[in-house]
Write a structure and sequence with these properties.
By secondary structure, the protein is an alpha/beta fold. The chain folds into two domains: 15-172, SPOUT methyltransferase, trefoil knot domain (Alpha/beta knot, 3-Layer(aba) Sandwich), CATH 3.40.1280.10; 187-248, no CATH class. Helix content is 45%, strand content 11%. The chain is built from ten helices and six strands, in the order E-H-E-H-H-E-H-E-H-E-H-E-H-H-H-H. It has helices at residues 30-43, 59-65, 69-74, 81-85, 111-120, 136-140, 159-172, 187-203, 213-225, 229-248; strands at 19-25, 46-50, 77-78, 90-94, 122-127, 144-146. The protein has a six-stranded parallel beta sheet with strand order 3-2-1-5-4-6. The longest helix is centred in the last third of the chain and has 20 residues, at 229-248. It is elongated.
Length: 249
């Protein structure tokens, strides 16, 4: 995490090449919903809502949005993670991993790397509900993990606070000019690669069960490499053909 705060922050909305979406999965509190919308508008991010549990018309949601009611009302209501992944250059899960092991989870990212991903395309920052955070299965669907550098003894923030802190860290994480590069594979292409890897390893009986953490450990080097779309498709095609050969053996 070194180097995150030693650069001059630049607002996300001041960088036309940066595209950031904040996803709230199953939020319950109208106040958090409104406050998160306000933070998104302050930093120039878009708000996405997955399986919304809070009432966006509640007086607390409107009061805490305070000027960002338009963003709250315009926030797309999604019903599946497939919709979240569609068109995303990277999907990053926000989690302190409190009480959980990182084994079998996507690799940790720096905030500077996240800012670069936002320049490559559409970056989605995913936050879980107030009471439990993202599930392990949801974190496993991400391209990588981000953590807010809180004190280890108390790594917990209110949902809206976490959204605001994350957007501030993202704004501070990449003020240097972008390095020209080929755009990395999007979340949908990486999901297809993950599914093909799981199917091939299951067919070969290498995995004991579909959710074996070993699957994510094998996938992690590919996620860290930030494959291009072409490279991800090559891997997916090779695994598919290998899987057919294994099943036909």
């Amino acid at each position: 995490m070194n180097g995150i705060l030693d650069e001059t922050p630049s607002p996300l909305e001041d960088d036309a090449a940066v595209s950031v979406d904040v996803l709230l999965a199953r939020p319950h509190s109208p106040g958090n919903l409104g406050s998160a919308a306000r933070a998104c508008k302050a930093f120039g991010a878009r708000l996405l809502l997955l399986d919304l549990r809070a009432d966006a018309s509640h007086e607390d949601a409107r009061a805490f949005a305070s000027g960002a009611e338009d963003l709250l009302d315009a926030a797309p209501r999604l019903s599946s993670w497939d919709e979240v992944e569609e068109g995303a250059s990277a999907l990053l899960a926000l989690s302190s991993l409190r009480g959980r092991s990182a084994r079998g989870l996507p690799p940790a990212w720096s905030w500077a790397a996240a800012r670069r991903a936002a320049r490559d395309g559409r970056l989605v920052l995913a936050f879980g509900p107030e009471r439990s955070g993202l599930t392990t299965d949801e974190v496993r669907r991400a391209s990588g993990r981000l953590a807010i550098p809180t004190r280890p003894g108390f790594p917990v923030l209110n949902l809206a606070q976490a959204v605001a802190a994350s957007l501030a860290l993202l704004a501070a994480g990449g003020s240097s000019p972008p390095t020209p590069t080929t755009a990395p594979a999007g979340a949908s292409a990486l999901r297809r690669l993950r599914e093909e890897l799981a199917a091939t390893l299951a067919a070969s009986r290498y995995l004991r069960r579909d959710d074996d953490p070993v699957l994510l450990e094998l996938l992690s080097p590919l996620l860290r490499a930030r494959l291009t779309t072409h490279e991800a498709e090559l891997w997916t095609g090779a695994l598919r053909k290998l899987g057919h050969r294994v099943r036909g053996a």
